[in-house]
Amino acid sequence: MLDWSLDGLDEARRKLADVVRPINDRRIGEHAAETLEPIAEDARRLVSVRSGALHDSILVAPTIEFTGETEGQSVSVGVLEAGGDGVFWGHFVEFGTVHWPGEPFLTPAVYRNIDLIFTALGKRLGEDMIGAL
Asked: For residue 43, what are the domain limits?
């Protein structure tokens, strides 16, 4: 019969908990706000500018600003309606209507930056975890 023991497991669990502790919704939201800005910049560059209202409404903001949803600490990039009196028609420009073809600006901006976003977000979260060691 093989007899063995594993020492230090409790200490390893505590260390792992310490490493993961700084990674929470709020911290991820802070990092996301920084890393999503290139998407907003590209979308502003790609959007057709007539009055400038749509261009100026492309923002990175807490999701609650876009949807009113209060759960979590998520961050979004998109067209902010500014309390209902702003640009409500941004999706018509992006996707088109029955009578007008779409002029995508946000979707291409996301696809152009997706690798950069995941790399930057992963790097920042990794730095948080290493800093907790």
From this structure: 25-132
pLDDT in tens, 5-48: 667 777 777 776 666 665 655 667 677 778 889 999 999 999 98
The tally of CA atoms less than 13 A away on the side-chain side of residue 7 is: 0
Query: What is the residue-wise DSSP string for 100-124?
Result: SB---SHHHHHHHHHHHHHHHHHHH
For 50-82, the pLDDT digits (tens) are: 888 888 888 887 766 666 666 666 677 878 765
Which amino acid appears at position 125 of this protein?
A: L
| Residue 13 forms part of a structural domain | no
Q: Is residue 14 part of a domain?
A: no
Number of domains in the chain: 1
Q: For residue 105, what pLDDT band results from cuts at 50, 70 and 90?
A: very high
Q: How far is residue 36's CA from residue 38's CA, in Å, rounded to a whole number? A: 6
4 assigned to some structural domain: no
Task: Label residues 104-130 b or e (16+ Cβ within 10 Å = b).
Answer: bbbeebbeebeeebeebbeebeeebbe
